[in-house]
Amino acid sequence: MLATMSRISVWILGDQLLLDHPALVAASQIAARREICVVLVESAQRTARLPYQRKKLVLLFSAMRHYAEELRALGYTVRYLHARSVQEALCQHVADWQPERLLTMAAAEYRGRLFQQQRLSSLLAIPVEVLPNSQFLIGRFTPGPASGKKMILENFYRTMRRHWGLLLDAEGNPLGGLWNFDHDNRKALPRSGLSIPPPLRFDPDPLTRQVMAEIAQLEHASGCVDGFDLAVTRSEAEAAFEDFLCHRLPNFGPYEDAMSSRNAVLFHSLLSPYLNLGLLEPLDLARRAEQRYAAGLAPLASVEGFVRQIVGWREFVYWQYWQQMPGLLDANGWQHTRPLPQLFWDADTPMNCLRHVVGRVLENGYTHHIERLMVICNFCMLAGIDPAALHQWFLSLYVDAYEWVVAPNVIGMGLNADGGRIATKPYLASASYLHKMGDFCSGCRFNPKTRSGEGACPFNFLYWNFLLEHESTLRANPRSGPAVLGLNHLSPPERAVIRQQAAAFLEELPLYPASAESHPADAAGSCSASGQRAP
User: Fold this and answer.
1) Which of 82, 166, 410, 502 could cross-link with 465 by S-S, CB 3.0 to 4.6 Å?
2) Mean pLDDT for the stretch of residues 194-219
3) Is the pLDDT of residue 516 over 90?
4) By the 8 A CB rule, do 252 and 302 touch?
């Protein structure tokens, strides 16, 4: 047995890399830093739960290992454990170090928090204190709906703005006279003449390269490690944020909903991976963006749009996650059961938009939010894809994906499968929207202006087929009314053609064989020239 060096242990989860971690703060009030043992765990069991994008695993494990070094430099004793499971690692730690008690912060995800609160103390046979999660603003202030009323995003967002004093004048009114400028933030990219600064990239250091070498050998994973260039330290994440403030925030608002085959990031921040790991803090991001407006360095519409994403939407989906769990994971309000098509694992499709967007996910684990909602989720909603299947695909492949954010965004917002608790109407769009907001239709074999027949874009006949199939349900929703009214212009013969064409398209969508011995993404695989794993 190792000599006891600490009587207090702190267990920090891999997505809680906070400098002012509540468990560290609480432990430091009791003991000197050198007497506090911090435990971080890489769990083989957890890593193998899904065929995760290798770049996501590199980001997570490299950030964890750099965080361990950061804590050691601050004077903490740190044990970085590799184990079959978290339970096994913590039990071994307690047996070796014999701490008097263990402090930890509540997990952001349901299963992890349940384990901490209901099983951990009895498993370790020592007192365990689970401190409130501080990575979200609603852990410090929680807006609540008036008695008997449903909380919608806009009311939630306004309440958060008022409480934290963001973008308000001296009388407490919203700057510019409006709470949001979403109507102004819907411009498509001009075909030329607009310079798009690339996000800051980071060369892997020796520690990251070691992680990359390990992750490249994993069998139960997808994608490849080649080209990894994300931030893995707090200082790098800060540099990435400053780069966004200086170079992309001014144009973020107007082109927030734009899509492009030429550029995957556009003016988006690419900060969600760092924010969700705890390398950046949400209120700090919002206030520093607000300062850019005050200094005349960014327009109000762009700053408000960014603040709305951080303080509005991100906090709202986390709040919704805890309001709806555990039932949210099984929600399937539209009774969709179609398996996820093969194209989601190889991007092999003649549909130009899906090929680009899915290819980006497979290669880098990232697309911006409008491509997630209006290309991927829109297609899956129209095609009747099983919400649980798409949820797991997002969890597997996106570098910023965790259950608390994916379940509300995909199951609730994207697929409207939660009975409308998050989104008051399904987000559906035909090819007309994709053609307006992006350039994917250029060079595509399908015609975005043709509703049915030869050469018609699948987004068109699938869209009208969905409206026909669910006409009575959609008509009952006042927010869906205008879209459904378009059905009045379809003659009975055209309705029949649309239904037949949609059915034939969905029937012919290639699927991986159900009898396959392994998941389509399992295998170390090699990378193609595009960086995707060769199927």
Assistant:
1) 502
2) 96
3) no
4) yes
- The H-assigned helical ranges of 297-437 are 300-307, 315-324, 343-346, 352-364, 369-371, 378-383, 387-397, 403-406, 431-437
Structure confidence by residue, pLDDT tens digits, 352-368: 999 999 999 999 999 99
Which of 153-157, 202-206, 245-249, 278-282 is predicted with the least confidence, judged by mean pLDDT? 153-157
53: helix, strand or coil: strand
Residue 330, Cβ density class (10 Å: 0-12 exposed, 13-18 middle, ≥19 buried): exposed
* C-alpha–C-alpha distance, residues 340 and 349, integer Å: 13
The token pair at 427 is 């987000």
Helix or strand (DSSP H, E) at 112: helix 110-118
Half-sphere exposure of 506 (CA within 13 A, CB side): 24
Look at residues 314, 354, 185 and name the one whose alpha carbon lies nearest to residue 257. 185
CB-CB neighbours of 522 under 10 Å: 16
Partners of 80 in the beta sheet?
Answer: 40
Question: What are 109's two structure tokens?
Answer: 């995800």
Write out the H or E segment, with its range, that includes residue 55: helix 54-73
Tell me, what amino acid is at 376?
Answer: I
């049915």: which residue's tokens? 452
Q: How far apart are CA 216 and CA 218, in angstroms?
A: 6
- Beta strands at 8-11 and 221-222: parallel, antiparallel or unpaired: unpaired
Per-residue pLDDT tens over the stretch 377-414: 999 999 999 999 999 999 999 999 999 999 999 999 99
pTM comes to 0.93
Amino acid at 186: R
Distance in angstroms (rounded) separating the CA atoms of residues 9 and 474: 54
SS3 state at 382: helix
The CA-to-CA distance between both ends of the chain, in Å, stands at 48
Residue 463 near residue 429, CB atoms below 8 Å? yes
The H or E element spanning position 11 is: strand 8-11
In which residue are the tokens 């109000």 written? 300
Residues making up the chain, counted from first to last: 535
Distance CA 442, CA 471 (A): 32
Q: Which residue has the tokens 């490299």?
A: 62
Residues 6+ apart with CB under 8 A from 233: 63, 66, 70, 279
